[in-house]
Design a protein that fits this description.
The structure is a single chain. The chain is mainly alpha-helical. Strands 1-2 form a two-stranded parallel ribbon. The protein folds into three domains: 58 residues, no CATH class; 72 residues, no CATH class; 82 residues, no CATH class. Helix content is 48%, strand content 4%. It is built from 13 helices and two strands; from the N terminus they run ααβαβαααααααααα. Helix 9 packs across helix 11.
Length: 255
C-alpha cells in the first residue's frame, strides 16, 4: 500500500487497519495469519518505524517489505539498497517508452538525466513532439518540460513536483546543505563538501542516508536546486570558485 498521502506518523496503524478492513484492530485482524504487507514511501513518516516493530512482535507470522529513502534503524531491519540504473538499462527503458532505437544522443540524454527512471519516463513522454536531441537541448532551462499523464500521483506528474516533494522531506539543516551542494556538478567528495559547502558531518550523513550513496545530482535537479538557493549561499561567485578548485584537486588525485 502507498503511504504517499500520509504525513502524520501517528496515523500509520489506523491507515493500515482501514486498508485491510480491520474493524476490530490491526493486531487482532492479523493475529497468527501468514501475511506479507508492503508499505511504500515510508520515508515521510519515518518516526513511525517503532510501530512496525510492535506489529511484528504482536503478529509472529507477519512480514513487512518497506520502501524508504532512508533506513528505519529499528531492530530486525534488513536493508536491501536499490542501486541506480546502469547505462544500458536506462537506454533500454527510454527506447521502450519512446518506441525508438538507441543512438549516441539517447545515451547522452540518459546520462544527463542520471539514469533516473522517473526522469526517463517523463522525457520519453515528450518524444511524440520533440526529438531526443531537442529534449537534450532543453534539459536545464525547461524543467516543466517533463510531464507525465494525469493518472499518476501528483508528485510524479512532473519532474519539478518530484524534486519539490523530495525537498519537503528534508529538515532545515538538510535543506540548507542540499542547496549549497548545488554548486557541484556530478556530486562531490567529503573534503569538497566540508571546505566549499561548510558541511556538518552529521547533516551530510543524513543526506547520504537518504540517497544511499555519496551526494550526486543530474543537471535538471541541480538546476532546480540552484534556482532555489537565492540568499542561502553568501558570495556565490566565491563558492563557485572554491567548488571548481575542489573538483580540480579531485581530478589531480589530491585530497
Amino acid at each position: 500500500m502507498s503511504l504517499s498521502v500520509l504525513r502524520d506518523p501517528r496515523l500509520l496503524v489506523t491507515t493500515i487497519a482501514n486498508a485491510l478492513d480491520a474493524n476490530n484492530g490491526l493486531v487482532e485482524h492479523v493475529g497468527n495469519r501468514s501475511l506479507l504487507l508492503v508499505l511504500d514511501n515510508f520515508e515521510q513518516i519515518i518516526q513511525a518505524a517503532p510501530d512496525l516493530v510492535a506489529m511484528l512482535e504482536a503478529c509472529p507470522n507477519l512480514h513487512l517489505l518497506v520502501t524508504s529513502r532512508q533506513r528505519l534503524r529499528v531492530t530486525g531491519e534488513v536493508e536491501y539498497p536499490v542501486p541506480p540504473m546502469a547505462a544500458p538499462e536506462a537506454v533500454e527503458l527510454f527506447c521502450a517508452r519512446a518506441n525508438t532505437s538507441a543512438d549516441e544522443t539517447i545515451a547522452e540524454l540518459c546520462h544527463r538525466l542520471d539514469h533516473l527512471p522517473l526522469a526517463l519516463e517523463l522525457a520519453a513522454a515528450r518524444t511524440s513532439v520533440l526529438s531526443p536531441r531537442q529534449i537534450l537541448s532543453r534539459l536545464v532551462d525547461r524543467l516543466d518540460l517533463f510531464r507525465g499523464d494525469r493518472g499518476g500521483e501528483p508528485r510524479q506528474r512532473t519532474l519539478r513536483a518530484a524534486i519539490e516533494w523530495s525537498c519537503q522531506l528534508l529538515d532545515q539543516n538538510e535543506l540548507d546543505l542540499f542547496t549549497r551542494l548545488a554548486v557541484f556538478e556530478g556530486g562531490c567528495g567529503l573534503d569538497a563538501a566540508e571546505k566549499v559547502a561548510g558541511a556538518d558531518i552529521d547533516v551530510l550523513q543524513s543526506l547520504v542516508g537518504r540517497e544511499g550513496q555519496r551526494p550526486r545530482r543530474c543537471d535538471v535537479v541541480r538546476s532546480r536546486v540552484s534556482s532555489a538557493v537565492g540568499g542561502r549561499v553568501i558570495d556565490r561567485d566565491r563558492v563557485l570558485h572554491l567548488a571548481a578548485q575542489a573538483h580540480g584537486n579531485m581530478d589531480d588525485g589530491r585530497p
